[in-house]
Amino acid sequence: MKHKAFFRTLCLMALAIWNFGCENDGDQLEPLTPKVTLEKGTCKATSLTVKVTPSDATSCAVIALETEAGIPSTDDILQNGKNTAADKMSEVTFDKLQPKTEYNIFAVAANDTKFSEIVKVTMETLEKEDPDPDPDPDPDDKLYEMTPKLITGDYLGVGGFDGSHEYYTTITDAEFDEWGGAVSGGIVMELDIYAAASKNPTNPILASGTYEIDQEEKWLDKTIDAQSIYSRVFRLAEDGSVIGDPINYTSGNLVVNYDEASATYDISGDFILEDQTHIVLAYKGSIEYANETGSTGENIIMNTPYIYDAAYHGAGTGKEDGLGIYYIEITDAQFDEQGYPTTAGHHIYIKLFNEIDYDTNTSIPAGQYTIPQDDNPTILSMCSDVTRYEEYGNEVRWTFLPSSTIDVSYSGDICTIKGSMLNDDGTKIIFTYTGEIKVKNLAQFPVGNVTDAVFERGEAVHKYLMGTELEKYTMTFEDKDTGVTASIIMYDNKSDNPTVKEISTGTYTATPYADEDATAQHLTFQLGDDPLLTWYYGSYGFRYNYANGMKTAAKVTGGTIEVSETPNGMKFDLKLTTIDGAFEGVYEGEVPFYEEGTPDPIGDLDLTLTGIHRQYDNSSTDPSNFYLELVDDAYTESKGMDGHMVVMDLYCAAGVTTLASGTYPLSDEVQAGTCKNPATFVRIFKSGNTTDVTFKSGEIQVTYDETTSNYDITMNMITARQEIIKCKFTGKITFPSPQSMSKKAIPILYKDTE
Predict the structure, then answer these.
(1) Sign of CA dihedral 583, 588, 589, 593
(2) Chain center to CA of 116
């Protein structure tokens, strides 16, 4: 892993604070709509620069098109444009453009549920200028004679094509405080140097010689990679802040002479920068290179390794196609609840390959695993690397060689894993783990070739298409035994009786996918389009692994659907094709109709809630508001990856300062003595995925014991699908002092097909 210890002192580190769920102020019912703005930047003959600023987004993209090209769709921008940061302003440059040409630049942002409007600015490239007949200014006009005050760097081990090692080197004439922050003006030179290996990685030595600037990324001994992001020059203002953009090297060299007797260097440098600055430098003294290779030059034995994580991910793709993939992480370091190391140590990531196995009780198959010579995995092969956590949690990565081995064996339920991992310097890291291993099954079943599905559940989600004589039905058919599910978008003429939901009999043929149902016709179904994140557009076949909640999708590419009436109800005969092969099945029975926005089925629930995730007291409002997020043991033990959370938004009479005993029926309005819909809901977690389900009716019963300060809370609710949701909590609840209710969880309600 490439990083510079010294350069990190010049960078601002942003802390990403993860707030649970989709939260917003007050009782807002819908997730925030993302926004994006565009601001014109610089114009050149063959390039244009814009500033892109998204908000409330998880992704953002921008594209430049000649004005004659027309307006792209949202999908075109997201799929073909340049991706930008979703949480801050970015500068985006479009190069290789035509001179004196007008371009439209479009941007769009998206989050998990919504897209922003497409925004546009129009810019024109400049005329191409004739080259200067005498473009070579005298470099000495910009001569900078540098007297380095500090030279330091990182030694990363093998990085060159010829086996040479990497030395990230920083040279500066600025002053720095004890925390590594610049406190004076000057320059900082960064050089990505390739040199001979150090004999002792704990005391790295940059070998004597002349190191030339390399613009072609040859990555050979005695070169400095000028294309690396670690070969740049930074100018510092008098207060130590960085001035402008980093400047690249065009040519130059560094002459190094190391004296073993005194352990000092005699260094001179001569460099030309892109802005024609001419830097010359001379330095005599010591240089400290931090050992970032992961190796100490001797074998390492992990004394108390334990399994940090173990999971089965099912079938691989590409070179890993046809192999089952197991991930295990073994460590002797300690970590906090957020997953950050709190002690020095080692953390080994191991990817093992064996036969595909969708068994819900997956264990790591026994055998000896080795790293293949040709990097092509086979059964009983592996790929692996280790991160060594140094002081303060700094990490360095160590990649292992083919002679490395891992032996897995069992005695009953006790697993023994022995590792002997070979580093490129000839040293080894050796470990033995003995104990039980709980392997999480995260495998996704392939949709595959489905020829005889018998769907036991069918339903239709209904929507009128405004401005047309058509109705849209999102049909769902499910076979729980195999996990095969179909989600089909079907179109039919409006019924003569709008109060009766029904779908016409006949043969439905395919119509291409299009936004806003643009291709909708009577007796047709919509083909599938490429998915975006967790959104599936059009018709899809799915296969679920009910053990872990994982699913695999395959878009529908053709076929027919025959709809008929039988004594048992409606019959749907699906003879479809998908990108994974045939997809054929039959559903016969009653078809319940739901309006758009109805949550997916979850079945009846009877939950015992044992923990409090969050609680708020906003009793200063009228009516008084009390907010709870209660969780079960599964949620607590899995740290939010699995389990249930029940969100309760309760209202008492004005002036009430403690959640009062009583019955709180579900209400669409904010009023005393009720719980608010849909802000009262259940959130289901499965393998890190969430499903939110709201209620159609029901109540919450609260009993408060003033003597013990104990609460008994029971909830009985009915979903739109007539599912019964029961919850019970008993225990003390201490509400904070009256405060803002700015962090309520908001239910996210959408179907994967829309």
Answers:
(1) positive
(2) 20
List the chain domain ranges.
32-124, 139-291, 300-441, 450-595, 605-745
- Rounded CA-CA distance 246/399 in Å is 31
Phi, psi angles (nearest 5°) of residue 400: -90, 160
Helix (H, G, I), strand (E, B) or coil at 176: strand
Q: How far apart are the first and last CA of the chain?
A: 40
Residues facing 123 on adjacent strands: 103
The structure tokens listed for 451 are 């020829």
- Helices (H) and strands (E) in the chain — how many of each? 2, 54
Q: Supply the pTM of this predicted model.
A: 0.52
| Tokens standing for residue 191 | 């050089």
**Over the stretch 553-597, which tens digit does the pLDDT of each residue have?**
999 999 999 999 999 999 999 999 999 899 999 999 999 988 877
**CATH number of the 32-124 domain:** 2.60.40.10
Rounded distance, CA 370 to CA 347, Å? Answer: 19
Residue count (the chain): 754
What's the helix, strand, coil split of the chain in %, to 5? Answer: 5, 50, 45
Query: What is the rounded CA–CA span in Å between residue 403 and residue 400?
Result: 8
Residue 274, CA atoms < 13 Å, CB-side half-sphere: 12
Are the beta carbons of 279 and 186 closer than 8 angstroms? no
Cα 169 from Cα 719, distance rounded (Å) = 63
Distance CA 246, CA 252 (A): 17
What is the C-alpha to C-alpha distance for residues 251 and 278, in angstroms, rounded to an integer?
A: 10
Neighbouring residues of 237: CB distance < 8 A, sequence distance ≥ 6: 185, 243
d(CA 477, CA 587): 7
> What is the separation of C-alpha 557 from the centre of its chain, rounded to a whole number of angstroms?
29
> Using one digit for the tens of pLDDT, what is the confidence trace for 124-182?
999 876 555 444 444 456 899 999 999 999 998 888 888 899 999 999 999 988 887 88
The two tokens of residue 688 are 């890190």
